[in-house]
Amino acid sequence: MAVVTAIANGTIPLGLLGSYCIYKEKLTVWQVAGSLACLAGILILSLSVLGQEEEQPVISIAEVQSTAMRSMVIDATVSMVMLGTRINMAKYCTRILSPLTFLKLNLVTDFACAALIIVLSALGFIRIPL
User: What is the predicted pLDDT for the residue at 5?
Assistant: First the structure.
């Protein structure tokens, strides 16, 4: 679980990168150092867990755990990219829209995403264990 938490915290460097590239904001040395430390921690945790797997000819609990860990790492990475994108989009929207309009738009978007997930799971395209 530490790997998933670390990767999910990768939104911090993504938000900083978006601020620099999209909005042309100046970054301080402390912001860059903190972002690099965050990325280094993510890489160290991810690589240390993924490097522990050993090849075995018979399916074992270790192999199942290794496959589950890979899935969690992939899911967490995708979530990190999506959340980082959303943070940058929110920053952009708050600059061009009024606060009330942005809140309404955000609520509608959240509702649409939740409804899509419910419909996809009801149709059997995705499986959500309860």
Answer: 65
The phi-psi region of residue 69 (left if phi > 0; otherwise alpha if psi is between -120 and 50; otherwise beta) is: alpha
Residues composing the chain:
130
Query: Residues 44, 46, 48, 51: is their CA dihedral positive or negative?
Result: negative
Instruction: Give the C-alpha separation, 42 to 29, whole Å.
Output: 20
pTM score > 0.85 for this model? no
Q: Among residues 16, 3, 2, which one has the least CA distance to residue 73?
A: 3
- Find where tokens 């609520």 sit: 107
Kindly report the number of other CB atoms within 10 A of residue 35's CB atom. Answer: 19
Q: Which of these, 85, 77, 76, lies nearest to 15 by C-alpha position?
A: 85
Distance CA 73, CA 6 (A): 10
